[in-house]
């Protein structure tokens, strides 16, 4: 079970205790992902995440932040997505107060030293180049740009180099003031901790967070009309992402969509894995997943194949999509997908970090917070008819979108292969 308390400032504090663990994760969620950015700010959300680790009033440098947590054997990390950012410390339960001390000092009292900003520019540019040199990552970014177009959902979270090279201390302070407020944050305590202690720590260390959210993100309205994007790169393989626009995280069909993606390519007993990797020997990695934002989503399959077998791979993946649309899924496949999801989800919640993420994301973004039983019940209630109807609606040739990174340069031929 879990509980939600609201501090005097309006900041929600979630307590998600777990038996049989000695760890506690303190996780702060902020509605400050990259889709909140404007065109001249592309990358500031992610850059800001880096800068919080440069020190505050008490822990005044990256070294002091890291030593405080490392000395207790804990983990301290952060991430920036498109709809939210997260900052967490995972420690043994006896050090929960230290976790709050470090996180609150970072987030409430960050100094953003100019000399650290200058150094961090190079770090982020190298991070961006790392992703550019990793086609498995880059293809996913390209797919979202193809799908969502010139909308913040289609922009790379890491941003544009010109922004990374030009953003200044005042920009970080202004961006933080606009979005890092009690009404746009959630603090989660998960693991070996009780509600009273969590609320007391929340009030002591995060209760002074002030202000109000000053910016909303731009709603998403239209998927891009381009069907194919090719990126030329000297690689041994062609890396592809082939998918369709799908439903968002608030759509009633989101649970059916997740199960559909598992059936198609979510594990080693899925259709893509057995019918393409195992039966054809055409690739090493192939998987299907669904991504859901608040007002948009997709289902996509990604794979790495020999350059000479690219067209074959595209044909096989589209064949699986079309077969699913025409004939639907079997009762056995649907039950296996439900059992798989239940097992994976249950195992993941043994980790206090995953437990914190499950509850914190819901509270920050969604209109209701489900406990674990209610969440799994939504999947159990999905019927074969729901999955079949969704597949028939999504998997049509006019919906297909394709990204390829490799030596292929014939866009017209790629478009024809999707017809």
Topology summary:
Blueprint: E1 3-6, E2 12-17, E3 23-30, H1 44-51, H2 62-70, E4 75-80, E5 85-92, H3 96-108, H4 114-132, H5 135-148, H6 161-166, H7 169-179, E6 185-191, H8 195-206, E7 228-232, E8 237-246, H9 254-265, H10 271-280, E9 283-293, E10 296-306, H11 310-327, H12 331-348, H13 352-365, H14 372-380, H15 384-394, E11 401-406, H16 411-418
Parallel strand pairs: 2-6, 7-11
Antiparallel strand pairs: 1-2, 3-5, 3-6, 4-5, 8-10, 8-11, 9-10
Structure, explained:
The chain has 419 residues and is of the alpha+beta class. It folds into two domains: 3-206, Metalloenzyme, LuxS/M16 peptidase-like (Cytochrome Bc1 Complex, Chain A, domain 1), CATH 3.30.830; 228-418, 2-Layer Sandwich (Cytochrome Bc1 Complex, Chain A, domain 1). 46% of the residues lie in helices and 20% in strands. The strands form two sheets. Strands 1-2-6-3-5-4 form a six-stranded mixed β-sheet, sandwiched between helices. It has a five-stranded mixed β-sheet with strand order 7-11-8-10-9, sandwiched between helices. Strand 9 and strand 10 (296-306) form a beta hairpin. The protein is globular and about 60 Å long. The model has no long low-confidence stretch (mean pLDDT 97).
**What's the helix-strand series?**
EEEHHEEHHHHHEHEEHHEEHHHHHEH
- Structural class computed from helices and strand pairing: alpha+beta
How many separate helices?
16
Count of discrete domains:
2
Q: What's the total count of β strands?
A: 11
Q: What is the global morphology?
A: globular
Cross-sheet strand order for the largest sheet:
1-2-6-3-5-4
Instruction: Name the CATH superfamily classification of the largest domain.
Output: Metalloenzyme, LuxS/M16 peptidase-like
Q: What top-tier CATH class of the largest domain fits best?
A: Alpha Beta
Helix content: 40-55%
Distance between the termini: 49 Å
Sketch the major β-sheet: 6 strands, mixed
User: Runs with pLDDT <50, length 5+?
Assistant: none
Q: What is the CATH fold-level name of the largest domain?
A: Cytochrome Bc1 Complex, Chain A, domain 1
Mean pLDDT: 97
Task: Return Rg in Å.
Answer: 22 Å
Percentage of residues in DSSP E strands: 15-25%
Q: In the CATH classification, which architecture of the largest domain applies?
A: 2-Layer Sandwich
């Amino acid at each position: 079970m879990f509980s939600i308390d609201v501090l005097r400032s309006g900041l929600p504090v979630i307590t998600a205790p777990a038996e049989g663990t000695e760890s506690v994760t303190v996780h702060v969620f902020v509605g400050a992902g990259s889709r909140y950015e404007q065109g001249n700010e592309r990358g500031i959300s992610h850059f800001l995440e880096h800068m919080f680790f440069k020190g505050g009033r008490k822990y005044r440098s990256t070294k002091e932040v890291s030593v405080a947590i490392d000395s207790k054997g804990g983990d301290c990390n952060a991430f920036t997505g498109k709809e939210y950012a997260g900052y967490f410390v995972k420690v043994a339960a006896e050090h929960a107060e230290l976790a709050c001390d470090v996180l609150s000092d970072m987030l409430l009292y960050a100094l953003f030293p100019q000399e650290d900003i200058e150094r961090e520019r190079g770090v982020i540019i190298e991070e961006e180049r790392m992703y550019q040199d990793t086609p498995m990552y880059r293809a996913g970014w390209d797919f979202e740009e193809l799908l969502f177009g010139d909308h913040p959902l289609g922009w790379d979270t890491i941003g544009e180099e010109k922004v990374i090279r030009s953003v200044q201390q005042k920009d970080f302070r202004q961006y933080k003031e606009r979005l890092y407020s009690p009404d746009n944050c959630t603090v989660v305590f998960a693991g070996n901790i009780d509600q009273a202690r969590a609320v007391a720590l929340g009030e002591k260390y995060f209760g002074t967070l002030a202000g109000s959210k000053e910016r909303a993100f731009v709603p998403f309205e239209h998927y891009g009309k381009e069907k194919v994007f090719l990126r030329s790169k000297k690689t041994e393989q062609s890396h592809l992402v082939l998918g369709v626009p799908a439903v968002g995280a608030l759509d009633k069909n989101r649970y059916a969509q997740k199960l559909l993606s598992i059936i198609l390519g979510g594990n080693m007993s899925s259709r893509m894995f057995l019918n393409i990797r195992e039966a054809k020997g055409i690739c090493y990695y192939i998987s299907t997943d669904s991504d859901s934002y608040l007002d948009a989503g997709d289902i996509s399959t990604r794979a790495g194949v020999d350059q000479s077998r690219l067209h074959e791979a595209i044909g096989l993946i589209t064949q699986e999509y079309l077969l699913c649309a025409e004939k639907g899924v079997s009762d056995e496949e649907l039950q296996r997908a439900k059992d798989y999801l239940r097992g994976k989800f249950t195992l993941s919640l043994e980790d206090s970090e995953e437990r914190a993420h499950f509850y914190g994301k819901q509270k920050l973004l969604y209109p209701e917070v489900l406990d674990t039983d209610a969440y799994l019940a939504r999947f159990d209630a999905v019927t074969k008819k729901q999955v079949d109807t969704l597949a028939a609606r999504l998997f049509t040739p006019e919906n297909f979108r394709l990204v390829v990174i490799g030596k292929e340069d014939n866009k017209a031929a790629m478009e024809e292969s999707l017809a």
